[in-house]
Amino acid sequence: MFDLWNISLALNALLVGIIIVLSGIAFARKNKITGLQEQKLRDKELELAFQKKALFEHGLVSVTDTDGEILEVNSKFLGAFGYSRDELIGTSIHELYPDEEKHISDAIRAQTKTGRMWSGETQLLRADGSRAMTQNTVVPLMDDDKKHVKNLSLRIDISRQKIKENQKLVTAAFDKMTDAVVLYDPKNFKIFYMNAFALAEQGWDANEIEGKTLWDTRYVSDRDAMVETCQNTATQGKWTARMENAISGEIYEAHSYRVVVTSDAPRILTMFREVTRNVELERERNRLISIITHELRTPLTSIKGAMGLLDSCAMGPMPSEAKNLVGIALRNSDRMLDLIAQILEAEKAEHEARHEVLVPINMAEAVAAAIASNQGYGTELGITYRDPVGTEEVWINGSERMLEQILANLMSNAAKFSPEDSTVDVWAERKGRRVVLFVRDHGMGVPKDLQPQLFSRFVKTDQQVRSNVHGSGLGLSIVKSQVDRLGGTIDFDTAENVGTCFRISLPLLEVDPEAMKPGAVGNRIGA
């Protein structure tokens, strides 16, 4: 019995020992697994921290909530866009998008709320108002419950890349042109770029323009004229002048434009087009105009005077049939003299348009002045001119004289083709970076067969007009040439027995309103 008891105790002790050893082994293995898990977790945290550091050091990073409110930005973001941290934190990322790209911001927010990443090109506004093109990747961040809580945006500024791509496109386009294109410094006339046509005309290759100036080309011999062109281009933004090479006799029309390249000083881009043959044709045309003036108008005036004497019976009574014939001759003389006068006026308008100096014009004042000055003509025909919207202050760079002629032509045409006791609406509106001038009547409309050539010379309608003055068909061609000179476009909508609306789109001139008040010095913000 004693031996069995001892054996039982020994087995129990051995069992307890085995359990203790196994428990120790299990505990040790558990500690080892836990240690490995903790090490793995630490490694993961280090990896995430490294990735975050890499993102924040090399990318433009912003963190927003689900509604787009900015929660965090890195220093790279601040440096790239020129904002301070206080300016951005708490504001909406939506406000940094240009107006025409705010729909992209809305699309990003909608897509990330579904848990899907968004990637693409976006523009953001810098603090100075300029734009930066970025490649943007937006990653939605989720909590443990898979609920969308934040967006992490990583941007890369690709503005310079885009500029280079655009420069290649522009250069390729210039090289297709058959006009000489030259980019140069207006201070020392050092050439930076010439297109393929200009290089071929000079007999140079692209490497030879280093150190060359505009004076080394065949396009300019009158330095004073070129200096004046650069001064006018610098102040007006663009300028057209005619250059004659005194040595070769070649004549060039120079279209110059002010070009601002990032932070560099402005440069000037000039397109030189040889117009020697055109000038010769223009001289021939002027000779013809002189013939019309002296060889036709003078004898017609004498004929009209003689017919007037006959019509007044100053030479004695005439039979009624002869008097009718004299009356027909008088009316035809008046019509021919009026046509000659309008041809001369059209030539004068085109000549003056080429040499007009442009100044800032307040379109609200221009519309009001046009309505006031043309109202007498409208009253004669039973027409009321009005501004239906109350034109607000918007500005263009233009000529008051040309604008008056443009409006007078369009408003008189509208009155002549409108029913009595109707209105002609005249107003202007800002449309983005343009100012659109409207002249709308409620008349008979433009016949379909005239619409394609409406702005050509001597195009007249057979429609009955309510005016004793018959047009020459030159008015709208004059309007078109003057609108072109102002850098604008003109078109129209028309419907039979509903009316016609002419639209003139002109470049907006942004100004400081206080600086444009009487007595103040004008201060343009930008054209």
Structure description:
The chain has 527 residues and is of the alpha+beta class. It has 4 domains: 4-156, 2-Layer Sandwich (Beta-Lactamase), CATH 3.30.450; 163-274, 2-Layer Sandwich (Beta-Lactamase), CATH 3.30.450; 279-355; 359-507, Heat Shock Protein 90 (2-Layer Sandwich). Helices cover 44% and strands 23% of the residues. The protein is built from 12 helices and 19 strands. It has helices at 2-58, 75-81, 85-88, 102-112, 159-175, 196-202, 223-236, 276-311, 320-354, 363-380, 400-416, 475-485, and strands spanning 60-65, 70-73, 118-125, 131-142, 148-157, 180-184, 191-194, 238-244, 251-259, 267-274, 359-362, 383-386, 395-398, 422-431, 434-440, 489-495, 499-507, 510-511, 524-526. The strands form 5 sheets. It has a 5-stranded antiparallel β-sheet, with helices on both faces. A 5-stranded antiparallel β-sheet has the order 7-6-10-9-8, with helices on both faces. A 5-stranded mixed β-sheet has the order 12-14-15-17-16, with helices on one face. The longest helix is centred in the first third of the chain and has 57 residues, at 2-58. It is flat and about 115 Å long. It starts with a helix and ends with a strand. Mean pLDDT is 80; it is low at 44-51 and 519-527.
